C-alpha cells in the first residue's frame, strides 16, 4: 500500500498574500483571540523569530515592522477544500488530517495515470501553485507525512525502503500526538524517533497507556491506521460584496434576504430543504464574523428561513460594518414535501401552530393571542364569566 501526504505550510499567510499581493515579501503576522490573549495563528518567513502560538505582544516586540492581518478562517477553509476537491477529481481517496495536511491513497491509481511518478506529478499540478505544496510518498500514513516534511516546496520526496535509518534522526515532534505527549517524551529525554524506537513497547505502554503502543510502532515505521476518506457535505452558497462598509442592521437584513432568494432559487434547492444557515462576513478593520443558525425543522422556503435569520441577527447583530457577506445553506435533505392530514380540523390546527411560530420569531416572545374560556358563566359580574388564556394549540 502506498500513500502520499499533502502538506501546505503557512496556508493562512499564503492565502492572504494571494488575495492581497502587496503583502508579498513583507513580514506578516496573522493573530487570533481577544485582548491580551491574542496569539499568533501564522506568520510569513520574513517575520523572523515569530512562531505560531506565540503571544501577539511578544511577536510584535520580536518583529516590530510586521504587518498585522486579521484572520479569515472561512477563506482558509475554502482554499484548502478547493485543493482537496482537485485531488479527489483525479479519482483519489483523501483523508484530511488538519488544515493544510491531508493523506492520499495512491494504490490502484497508478494505471489510470500512467505510473506512480506521473500520478504524483498530477497531484502537484492539481494544487494551485501559490500554495507550494510538499508531497511525501511512503508505505504508510505516518511515513508519508514524515517524507512530506523533507520535501521542498512544490516538490515530492519519496521515503527510502530502509526506513529505520531514515527515521532515527528525526524529531519526535513529527508524531501525530498532542503536544502534552511530546512534552512528556521530552521529560523522559526522548527527543528523536531513534531513541523512541529503542524503547521497549511495554515500557512505553506503562507510561503512556494505549498511546504508548502507537508511539513505539510509529517510531519503527509501523502504522496500522487505515485511511478514512473525508465525508462530503452538500452546501449551497451565495455572496455579496458591498461598495462601502455596511453597519446598519436594516441594510444587512436586506442583503440576507437577497442572498436567501438567490440560494433557494438555485436548481439544486428545488423541492429540497435545509437545516443549517451559516453567515460569514468580512468586517471592516476587525476579525472576520461567523454566525451559524440551526432551524428547528428543515426549511424549503426563503420567507420562513429569513424570519428565523432576521430574529437571530436583530438579537445579535454583526460586530461591525461588513465589507462582504456570504450565506451558506447546509444539512440539505431530499424531502419533497410535508405529510399533511386529511382531516380539516387537524390541518387548521397545524396552520395555527405555524402562524404562532412565525409570530414568535418576529416578536421574540409569546405573541399576544388568547383563548376566551368560560369560567363562571352564572356570575353576575361580566369579568368573572370569562377569562383570557394564552393560545397554545
How many beta-strand runs?
A: 14
- CATH fold group of the largest domain: MutS, DNA mismatch repair protein, domain I
Secondary-structure content class: alpha+beta
> Number of domains in the coordinates?
3
CATH C-level label of the largest domain: Alpha Beta
**What's the story with the biggest beta sheet?**
5 strands, mixed
CATH architecture of the largest domain: 3-Layer(aba) Sandwich
The strand order across the widest sheet is 5-6-1-7-8
Estimate the helix proportion, in percent: 25-40%
Spatial extent as radius of gyration = 28 Å
Strand-and-helix sequence, N→C?
Answer: EHEEHEHEEHEHEHHHHHEHEEHEHEHE
Describe the structure.
The radius of gyration is 28 Å and the shape is elongated. The chain has 14 helices and 14 strands. It folds into 3 domains: 3-158, 3-Layer(aba) Sandwich (MutS, DNA mismatch repair protein, domain I); 163-219, Orthogonal Bundle (DNA polymerase, domain 1); 236-333, DNA polymerase, Y-family, little finger domain (Dna Ligase, domain 1, 2-Layer Sandwich), CATH 3.30.1490. A hairpin with a 5-residue loop joins β10 (273-283) and β11 (289-299). The mean pLDDT is 87. The protein is of the alpha+beta class and 393 residues long. 25% of the residues are buried.
Secondary structure layout plus pairing:
Blueprint: E1 3-7, H1 11-19, E2 28-32, E3 39-43, H2 56-62, E4 67-69, H3 73-88, E5 94-98, E6 101-105, H4 116-126, E7 134-138, H5 141-150, E8 156-158, H6 163-168, H7 179-187, H8 193-197, H9 201-208, H10 210-219, E9 236-246, H11 249-265, E10 273-283, E11 289-299, H12 302-315, E12 322-333, H13 344-363, E13 370-374, H14 382-385, E14 386-390
Parallel strand pairs: 2-4, 7-8
Antiparallel strand pairs: 1-6, 1-7, 2-3, 5-6, 9-12, 10-11, 10-12, 13-14
Amino acid at each position: 500500500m502506498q500513500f502520499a501526504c499533502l502538506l501546505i505550510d503557512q496556508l493562512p499567510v499564503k492565502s492572504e498574500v494571494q488575495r492581497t499581493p502587496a503583502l508579498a515579501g513583507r513580514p506578516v503576522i496573522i493573530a487570533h483571540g481577544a485582548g491580551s490573549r491574542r496569539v499568533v495563528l501564522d506568520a510569513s518567513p520574513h517575520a523572523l523569530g515569530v512562531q505560531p502560538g506565540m503571544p501577539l505582544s511578544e511577536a510584535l516586540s520580536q518583529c516590530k515592522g510586521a504587518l498585522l492581518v486579521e484572520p479569515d478562517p472561512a477563506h482558509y477553509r475554502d482554499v484548502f477544500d478547493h485543493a482537496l476537491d482537485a485531488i479527489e477529481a483525479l479519482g483519489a481517496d483523501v483523508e484530511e488530517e488538519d488544515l493544510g495536511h491531508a493523506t492520499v491513497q495512491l494504490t490502484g491509481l497508478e494505471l489510470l495515470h500512467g505510473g506512480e511518478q506521473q500520478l504524483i506529478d498530477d497531484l502537484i499540478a492539481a494544487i494551485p501553485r501559490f500554495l507550494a505544496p510538499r508531497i511525501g510518498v511512503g508505505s504508510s500514513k505516518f511515513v508519508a507525512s514524515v517524507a512530506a516534511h523533507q520535501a521542498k516546496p512544490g516538490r515530492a520526496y519519496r521515503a527510502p525502503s530502509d526506513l529505520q535509518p531514515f527515521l532515527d534522526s528525526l524529531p519526535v515532534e513529527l508524531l501525530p500526538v498532542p503536544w502534552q505527549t511530546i512534552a512528556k517524551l521530552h521529560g523522559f529525554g526522548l527527543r528523536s524517533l531513534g531513541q523512541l524506537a529503542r524503547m521497549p513497547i511495554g515500557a512505553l505502554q506503562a507510561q503512556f497507556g494505549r498511546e504508548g503502543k502507537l508511539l513505539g510502532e510509529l517510531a519503527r515505521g509501523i502504522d496500522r491506521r487505515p485511511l478514512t476518506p473525508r465525508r462530503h457535505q452538500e452546501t449551497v452558497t451565495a455572496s455579496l460584496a458591498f461598495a462601502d462598509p455596511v453597519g446598519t442592521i436594516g441594510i444587512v437584513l436586506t442583503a440576507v434576504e437577497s442572498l436567501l432568494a438567490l440560494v433557494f432559487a438555485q436548481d439544486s434547492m428545488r423541492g429540497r430543504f435545509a437545516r443549517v444557515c451559516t453567515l460569514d462576513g468580512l468586517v471592516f478593520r476587525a476579525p472576520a464574523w461567523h454566525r451559524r443558525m440551526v432551524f428547528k425543522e428543515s426549511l424549503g422556503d426563503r420567507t420562513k428561513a429569513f424570519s428565523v435569520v432576521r430574529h437571530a441577527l436583530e438579537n445579535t447583530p454583526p460586530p461591525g460594518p461588513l465589507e462582504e457577506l456570504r450565506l451558506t445553506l447546509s444539512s440539505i435533505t431530499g424531502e419533497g414535501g410535508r405529510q399533511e392530514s386529511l382531516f380539516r380540523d387537524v390541518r387548521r390546527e397545524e396552520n395555527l401552530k405555524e402562524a404562532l411560530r412565525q409570530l414568535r420569531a418576529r416578536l421574540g416572545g409569546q405573541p399576544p393571542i388568547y383563548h376566551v374560556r368560560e369560567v363562571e358563566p352564572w356570575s353576575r359580574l361580566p369579568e368573572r364569566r370569562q377569562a383570557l388564556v394564552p393560545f397554545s394549540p
